[in-house]
Amino acid sequence: MKIAVDFDGTIVEDQYPEIGKPMIFAFETLNELQKQGHQLILWTYRKGRPLQEAVAFCEEKGISFYAVNESYPGEQVEGISRKIDADVFIDDRNIGGFLGWSKIWQLLNENEPEAQMIDFAAHTNHREEKSFWKKIFG
């Protein structure tokens, strides 16, 4: 499976253009997904030096991406949309926010019983916020 992963706010805490602290279980989960044979694509707003720094940071943590900001290595992207071809997108800007790496692991491995044993609620880096509707209606 091709899995596109955002960097800031997803792999690391959002400190753009600096590199934030790694999110809890981010690199452990990405390493395991790579071991399972998934193709990881870094899909980020970063470009130039900040992008090179993000790629190098991930490589230091054992993650080598199949592609970076492209669907496959060497893809010609001039004049076409930046939307890439992936089966799954992991991003902190999803509706509902970032789920946390334990929950992502569970969702991607829902047919594996041992994956269900992780308490994902205990491993998120974000504070619990009221939903939009709860803020309005209590």
UniProtKB/TrEMBL annotation:
Q: Which domain of life is it from?
A: Bacteria
This chain belongs to the protein called Hydrolase
Record-linked Gene3D superfamilies: HAD superfamily/HAD-like
What organism is the protein native to?
Answer: Persicobacter diffluens
